[in-house]
Specification:
fatty acid biosynthesis; binds protoporphyrin IX containing FE; 18 helices; Cyt_P450; mainly alpha; three-stranded antiparallel β-sheet
């Protein structure tokens, strides 16, 4: 965006999507039959007096994803399509600027979670069982809001409804991929054939948007976005997506998966973790510092092992950019043509026994320790890239990669500063593991007892 344009305040993109379904079907008929392609776009540019307009693009219902787009119909705006880096730059700058807030906000939010676990375990009516996932949803949502913007969503107008609104919106994004356990005859038409109507979730989206708009303004993130050439409105939608879908959606699955793996690994691993964590924290003067966390090699290995065995995002898609050959692990070459859609199911790739040996399907906490262990890291793919590589504005690797491995480690630190060991029942739910605490043994040594 040229600096001369910035002097005028950004305005909303004009246009209309019409009524759900009916609007898109009408537009499709215009596009294919009544107007033809060129006229379809030209007439809308004329109608709204703007070359950047909100319109539906065919095919729309019921075949394609959401038909609603912001269409860029002039030579100046169009090149934005070539450049996804502004949004990424914004996320890198956000994570970098909030680096120092992560440890204290993590600790305050998650120590409150564990206090709740303890009091609920002590209360007889709970039957000595405490569901971790529900507590994690509420805590992770608040933690992310506070870590990124300094404002806990539960203290705003959203109140305690943030996680449920976010989960509903997530379901609207992910329903083609999930099953709710209902009979197939109901689920197929409901979840897998059509997109759920967006007006049913628009109230939830608006409430979330309002939180992001206020919190990101207060924390000046939207000022940064503007200085990168993004409009405040566009930046806010992107922050909502990165925070709710990528970050909250990620932590909703990451922590139960990690806890499940560690619970099943048993007491021996628990005491090794507790010893390592407490020694490093004691050495740092009783404080959980980033430097202390860096020294915890076993902790890091356990987080990687969990991400290897149970990657939170299991499917990957990509178009072949050129005609290419793909080699399988059996040494077979396959021809793939430009434009073909490639699809990967990650759990298969990261449990390959030819890389991870006979224990490939097992949780081995210390797998990545030492020189030999480090050599395996390049086969850990959870971030849409190798664990030995780093995300940048030029690649499609998860920009939250380092943040995720850090919070995974902080989770174990909090757990084993507090407890010598714990027991839990492990099952599965919609998107990953379900964990129910059945008992915790308070720490008998180290800084956690202070
Ligand atoms: C456990 C947590 C997380 C997991 C498992 C995860 C995983 C992934 C994966 C697999 C992708 C690639 C998707 C694809 O193109 O196929 C991705 C992309 C992305 N992630 Fe994460 N992520 C997590 C947390 C985060 C966090 C905390 C952020 C916050 C900044 C984030 C931001 C993004 C963004 C913006 C992309 C799109 C990158 C691009 O297409 O260029 N993620 N993530």
């Amino acid at each position: 965006m040229a600096s001369s344009d910035r002097s005028s305040a950004p305005r909303p993109v004009p246009g209309s999507y019409g009524l759900p379904v009916i609007g898109a079907v009408r537009d499709r008929l215009d596009f294919y039959y009544f107007q033809g392609q060129d006229k379809y776009f030209d007439s809308r540019v004329e109608r709204y007096g703007s070359t950047v307009v909100r319109i539906n693009v065919p095919p729309g219902p019921f075949m394609a994803r959401d038909p609603r787009v912001v269409a860029l119909l002039d030579a100046k705006s169009f090149p934005v399509l070539f450049d996804v880096t502004k949004v990424k730059q914004l996320l890198f700058s956000l994570l970098q600027s909030r680096k120092d807030a992560v440890v204290p906000t993590f600790r305050s939010n998650f120590s409150a979670l564990f206090s709740t676990v303890e009091s609920q375990l002590a209360a007889k009516e709970g039957g000595n069982k405490v569901e971790f996932n529900k507590l994690n949803d509420a805590t992770s949502f608040d933690f992310i809001g506070e870590a990124y913007f300094g404002v806990r969503p539960s203290t705003t107008d959203l109140g305690s409804d943030g996680p449920s609104k976010a989960a509903k919106w997530l379901l609207w994004q992910l329903h083609p991929l999930v099953t709710l356990g209902l009979p197939m005859i109901i689920e197929e038409p409901l979840l897998h054939t059509f997109h759920l109507p967006s007006f049913l979730v628009s109230g939830d989206y608006k409430a979330l948007y309002s939180y992001f708009s206020t919190a990101a303004s207060q924390s000046r993130v939207l000022d940064t976005a503007q200085s990168l050439g993004l409009s405040r409105e566009e930046a806010c939608h992107n922050l909502l997506f990165a925070t709710t879908f990528n970050s909250y959606g990620g932590l909703k699955v990451l922590f139960p998966g990690l806890l499940a793996g560690v619970a099943n690994a048993g007491q021996k691993l628990h005491s090794r973790l507790a010893n390592e964590i407490r020694a490093a924290v004691a050495e740092a003067g009783g404080k959980v510092t980033l430097a202390a966390v860096e020294k915890m090699e076993l902790v890091k290995s356990v987080v990687w092992e969990s991400l290897r065995l149970d990657p939170p995002v299991k499917f990957q898609y990509g178009h072949a950019k050129t005609d290419m050959q793909i080699e399988s692990h059996d040494g077979v070459l396959f021809q793939v043509n430009k434009g073909e859609m490639l699809f990967g199911y990650q759990p298969c790739a990261t449990k390959d026994a030819r890389v991870f040996g006979p224990t490939a399907r097992e949780f081995v906490g210390d797998r990545f320790l030492g020189e030999k262990g480090k050599k395996l890291l390049k086969y850990v793919y959870w971030s849409n890239g190798r664990e030995t590589e780093n995300p940048s504005v030029d690649n499609k690797q998860c920009p939250g990669k380092n943040f995720v491995v850090l919070v995974g480690r902080l989770f174990l630190v909090e757990l084993f500063l507090r407890y010598d060991t714990f027991t839990a029942e492990v099952g599965t739910e919609l998107l990953g593991a379900k964990v129910v605490f059945t008992g915790v043994t308070k720490a008998t040594s180290g800084p956690g007892t202070a």
